[in-house]
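Quick start: what a row looks like.
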Amino acid sequence: MIWWVVILYVAGLVLIFSEFFVPGGILGVIGGVALIASMSLGVYHFPDQAVQILLSQLVFAVVLIVAGIMVLPRTRFAGYMILDNPMTKDGEEWVSDKSDESLLDKEGEVYTMLRPAGIVMVGEQRLPAVSEGDYIEPGARVRVIEVHGNRVVVERVDEAPVDNE
C-alpha cells in the first residue's frame, strides 16, 4: 500500500509542475487531487506518522511550486508566452487606433454627461471622450486637450465674463 501513496504523490507533483508549462488548470487540479489522495492514504495506513506525512507533502509541494515559478521565466517556452519588450514605434507606446491629431484644441459641446466619460460633439462628429476627472453637464463647452488613439480628453472651456462698461 505504501507504493500507492508514493505513486500518487509523485504523480501529483509532476502534474502540478507540468501545469506551469501547459496552462489551463486541469493538470493542476488533477495533481492536487492526487496529492490529497496520497495524504489521505498515507494517514489512513500510517496514523502514527500523520503529522510527518502532512508536513513533508505540504513542504515539498510548496517547494515545487516555488521552483516552477522561478524556473518557468528562464525557459525557452516562456519566451513564447511572455512579452519581453513593450510594443513601440519611434519611441512611443503602440495604440490600436490612429490618433486624430486634427481634433487637438478644437472646441465642442458635451452631448451626454461626462462622469468623467461620455459623448461630446466636435463639429459634426460624436466622439467618446473623458474629462480630467470633472463631471461636466450636457451643453457645456469643452476643448480637446489630448488625443491618444481612440482616447479623447477634454476640459471645460470657461466662458469669459462679460464686461458691462
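That is the whole record. The chain has two domains: 2-81, 93-156. The longest strand covers residues 141-148.
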